[in-house]
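Dear Dr. L.,

I hope this message finds you well. Following up on our conversation about the binding site, I have prepared a predicted three-dimensional model of the protein together with adenosine-5'-diphosphate. For your records, I am including the exact sequence and ligand specification that went into the calculation, followed by the structure tokens. Please feel free to forward this to your student if that is useful.
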Amino acid sequence: MSRLTRVSQQEMKERITVGFEKHFGPLGDGHVYFAPGRVNLIGEHTDYNGGHVFPCALTIGTYAAVRRRTDRKLRFFSMNFPRNGVYESALDELIPSPRFGWTNYPKGVVKIFGDHGYPVENGFDMVIYGNIPNGSGLSSSAALEVVTAVMLCDQYGFEIDGKQIALLCQESENTYNGMNCGIMDQFTVAMGREDHAIFLDTAKLSYEYVPIRLKDASIIIANTNKKHHLRDSKYNDRRKECEKALADLSKVIQISSLGDLSCEEFEEYKGAIEDPVCRRRAKHAVYENRRTVDAVRLLKQGKLGAFGKLMREAHLSVSRDYEVTGIELDTLAEAAWRVPGCIGSRMTGGGFGGCTVSIVRNDSIPEFMGRVGRAYRKKIGYQADFYTVKIGGGPQIL
Ligand code: ADP
Ligand code: MG
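The resulting structure of the complex is given below.
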């Protein structure tokens, strides 16, 4: 998969078209669609706490080649999971089940579209091919949902804006796939803009595109390659812990989310949170929100070094207070901080494996990958992968 991240969009389009023909015949009046992966620069686990996030879409992403059918059948094939073969289902069978594997993501979106007054009457044949490292915290799931949504709008004539697409896809992931994620992933994937990060207030869904001009530096993703089976359930646990903290705090101060609290208010009222674990979770949510707002302000002032320092603080907070990192992510981040040309580094995404994001000076990239890679292999026993990524735009019809 690491070599796939360097394949151009044109080449991906050609490969998926060939893949479609092989499994389902000529694409005919069908199309190829694209939705990007995303990386969050700062603001982790704040999106379901009414706080701010600062993610950007990537040029790597998920492609879908789709042709409508005249009956109600649905057929799916993923070129990333060829051994799973073709999944056959129908529009009358939109019920999540492990036997439908990854197709629960696109099927969930079809179901939610129907629930919201966008009925899909005829089925389709869909081939998926992506170059987002799978399950690595770069939101291949949101890309798969959003590419499905954009396809449905185009093929079935629905007019739905990007924000609404994000909300429908989040609902699909929450209710159909049992992952209680916030809005960040789907919003970034649906609303990305080239060379910009999105400063998003997840309580109001108000947002601002902030240009990312790194000049002589690049964004480097390091993948732990850890297989993280328990991630979704632990993620849902964190969400519950924050809800508990919010319920306790609501007895002493009127707030509707942890994102409503300033750090000073948190310090004043934190005693109301009975469970010390929940108190630490809430502390992260409140301070991370402040860090994100500060980081964006500093970046706009051109203070990249100060932005990098906040990335490090953000990592320490998810490691110590929120406890979603683990030895793999901590090893990558700590090794990165020791490389002089590394401006900032932290884990990105839900955690428990997945990736770190680092901002590294271009002339230090080989040293960075060498030193961090060696430290990781020595401590963890297997290899980390590195990708230099570019900030891309939102979904496309190719
Ligand atoms: P991520 O951090 O990448 O979003 P998730 O665990 O949320 O990780 O989503 C990964 C899941 O999404 C995969 O296990 C698979 O079910 C589905 N998925 C993502 N990309 C593809 C793809 N190209 N083909 C088929 N399924 C995919
Ligand atoms: Mg996901």
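In brief: The mean pLDDT is 95.

With kind regards,
A. P.
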